[in-house]
Design a protein that fits this description.
Elements: E1 2-10, H1 12-16, H2 21-34, E2 38-44, E3 51-57, H3 60-72, E4 76-83, H4 86-94
Antiparallel strand pairs: 1-3, 1-4, 2-3
């Protein structure tokens, strides 16, 4: 499975309905898991992003589909990073010419 770091900013719509955010978070985590993913952590953050989630997905396509559907709901804007564990990075570096 691939690891993804998902950073989210509330939209005006999401901020206006902030009292519903805990239920939306739970629904989002369930949706991620229903697609075969595993949520490793979900954090409310201070700073540039309002939420940060770390999760595993069976494919890039699954992650992309989930994030597109999340964005379509209109409560958050997402920025996503595909993450590689340091062991995988070490193996990649060994293959460099």
């Amino acid at each position: 499975m691939s690891t993804f770091i998902m950073m989210m900013k509330l939209t005006d719509q999401g901020a206006k309905a902030i009292k519903e955010a805990p239920a939306r978070m739970e629904a989002g985590i369930k949706a991620w898991e229903s697609l075969g993913g595993k949520m490793l952590g979900f954090y409310i953050t201070m700073g540039e992003y309002d939420y940060v989630a770390v999760g595993e997905a069976p494919s890039d396509e699954v992650a992309a589909a989930f994030l597109l559907s999340l964005g379509a709901l209109g409560n958050v804007h997402t920025t996503t990073l595909k993450a590689f564990p340091r062991e995988q990075f070490a193996n990649l570096v060994k293959k460099l010419p």
